[in-house]
Design goal:
Blueprint: E1 2-6, H1 12-19, E2 23-27, H2 33-43, E3 48-51, H3 55-60, E4 68-74, H4 82-94, E5 96-107, H5 112-116, E6 119-121, E7 126-128, E8 132-133, H6 138-147, E9 150-158, E10 175-182, H7 194-197, H8 201-224, E11 230-231, H9 233-241, E12 252-256, H10 258-265, H11 268-273, E13 278-280, E14 285-288, E15 291-295, E16 297-299, E17 302-305, E18 309-312, H12 313-316, E19 319-324, E20 327-332, H13 336-343, E21 350-351, E22 367-368
Parallel strand pairs: 1-2, 1-4, 2-3, 4-5, 12-15
Antiparallel strand pairs: 5-10, 6-7, 7-8, 9-10, 11-12, 13-14, 14-15, 16-17, 17-18, 19-20, 21-22
Length: about 375
C-alpha cells in the first residue's frame, strides 16, 4: 500500500510500514536532525521516501502525483492551530483513494493532568509546557468526518501508553485514536468537468465492470502459473490518479516481459475455459476477455510495448500488489517515470478522453482535472 505519514515525528512508524513492503512517504517541512540522519536509511530502502516539504502545500497541490491508500497522522495535528486542521483534513481526503483510510492519533482535550500543568493561551486556544500544543475532542473529528464524506470505522479515547519510557511533556497522555474511511461515492458528478465526459460514462460502465470481473479471474490464473505482469498505460494512470479505472476509460492494460509473455500464450485454453477468450491484435498485443495484454521489450532503460506502452526498468523492479477499484493489480509502487514518459509531466492534472482507443470526441480538448475527477466509475 501507499502511505503518507504527515508530520512524521520520530519516523519509527514510517520505517515499520516500509519494512512491511508498503511505500511510505514521510512529509515534513522541518529539517530536524532526526530527519537528516534518516536520509542514510532511506537511501537503502526504496520504499521509504522523505519529502522535506510543507505538509499543507504538498497535499494542496497533489505534489506527489499519486493517491494514497492510507493517510497516517500521528501527533502532527497537536502541533498546528485548530483553524489549519480542517484544511489539512480536507486536503488529505483529496489525496486519498476512494475507500482509503485516514488513521489519526492526537492528544485529548480531556487530558486534565496535562492541562493543569500547562499555560493556556486564549487567543489561539493552545496549551504549552515547553512548546504550544492544540488538543482535540472526538466530536471535532466526527464533524470533520461528516463534512468530508468519511465513515468512522474506529474511535477510542484512552491512556494507550502506561509504560511509556520516552521523555515527553506528558508521560502517559490521554489520546484519541481514529480510523476513518473515505466513502465510495460518484465524486466525479460534482466536478466542473463532469459535463465534458458525463455522456461517456453510460457507454463505458458495462465494459468497465466486466474488466474488473475479468481481472479477478486473470489474477487467479496468473498467480496459479506464477506469471508476472505489470500494469501499464491507462491502468497505471488510473491507479495513481483515480484509484481505479479512469471514468472515461473502460479496460485494464497489462504488460508482460518476453519470458512471461510466452507463458501467458501457452495457457490460452485455460483462459477460454474461464470465459476469457483470446483475441490477437497483432504482434505482441492481444486480449483475454476485457483485459488488454502487451508484450514489453527492454530498450535502454524502458520496457516498451505497442501503442506507447511503457514501464521504466527502475519501476519494474519494485512491483507490488495494489488495490485497484473493485479488484487488485500488480504495479510499481512508484510510477512517475513511466507515467511522465507516456503522458507527460502534467499527467496528474490534465485529462484527455481521446487518449485511448475506446472513445473519441474531438470536440473535447484536454482539460485540467480537479479533485472530484480523481475517482473511478461506480457500479
Amino acid at each position: 500500500m501507499k502511505i503518507a505519514d504527515l508530520g512524521c515525528g520520530d519516523c519509527v512508524d514510517s520505517h515499520f510500514f516500509s519494512q512491511k513492503g508498503n511505500i511510505c512517504y514521510v512529509i515534513n517541512g522541518n529539517s530536524n536532525n532526526h530527519i537528516n540522519n534518516d536520509n542514510n536509511n532511506s537511501n537503502s530502502n526504496s520504499n521509504y521516501k522523505i519529502v522535506k516539504e510543507v505538509v499543507e502545500e504538498t497535499l494542496r497541490s497533489n505534489k506527489l502525483q499519486t493517491l494514497f491508500d492510507i493517510i497516517y497522522i500521528k501527533s502532527f495535528l497537536n502541533s498546528i492551530p485548530h483553524n489549519k486542521t480542517e484544511t489539512i483534513f480536507k486536503n488529505s481526503i483529496n489525496n486519498l483513494k476512494p475507500n482509503g483510510l485516514i488513521c489519526i492519533e492526537v492528544q485529548s482535550l480531556n487530558d486534565l493532568k496535562f492541562k493543569n500543568n500547562s499555560k493556556y493561551d486564549d487567543n489561539d486556544k493552545s496549551y504549552s509546557i515547553i512548546y504550544k500544543k492544540w488538543l482535540y475532542t472526538t466530536e471535532m473529528f466526527y464533524k470533520l468526518a461528516t463534512d468530508n464524506n468519511c465513515e468512522i470505522l474506529y474511535s477510542k479515547e484512552d491512556y494507550f501508553l502506561p509504560n511509556n519510557k520516552i521523555e515527553t511533556e506528558s508521560i502517559n497522555p490521554l489520546l484519541i485514536r481514529l480510523i476513518l474511511k473515505k466513502k465510495l461515492l460518484p465524486y466525479y458528478e460534482q466536478s466542473e468537468n463532469y459535463s465534458k465526459y458525463k455522456n461517456i460514462l453510460p457507454k463505458m460502465k458495462d465494459k468497465t465492470m466486466l474488466s474488473y470481473q475479468h481481472m479477478d479471474i486473470m489474477n487467479t490464473i496468473l498467480e496459479k502459473h506464477n506469471i508476472k505482469y505489470v500494469a501499464v498505460a491507462g491502468t497505471i494512470l488510473g491507479l495513481n490518479r483515480h484509484g481505479g479505472i479512469i471514468p472515461w476509460d473502460n479496460d485494464i492494460d497489462l504488460g508482460f516481459v518476453d519470458t512471461e509473455w510466452k507463458k501467458l500464450l501457452n495457457i490460452k485454453e485455460e483462459f477460454k475455459n474461464n470465459e476469457l477468450n483470446y483475441r490477437s491484435n497483432g504482434v505482441g498485443h492481444c486480449h483475454f476477455g476485457a483485459i488488454d495484454c502487451f508484450k514489453i521489450i527492454l530498450k535502454n532503460d524502458v520496457y516498451v510495448g505497442a501503442t506507447k506502452t511503457y514501464c521504466h526498468i527502475d519501476e519494474y523492479k519494485n512491483i507490488s500488489k495494489q488495490i485497484f477499484g473493485y479488484t487488485y493489480i500488480y504495479a510499481p509502487l512508484c510510477s512517475i517515470k513511466s507515467l511522465s514518459l507516456r503522458y507527460g509531466k502534467n499527467y496528474f492534472y490534465e485529462g484527455d478522453v481521446n487518449d485511448n482507443f475506446h472513445f473519441k470526441d474531438t470536440k473535447i480538448k484536454r482539460f485540467k482535472l480537479n479533485n472530484y475527477d480523481l475517482s473511478y466509475q461506480l457500479k
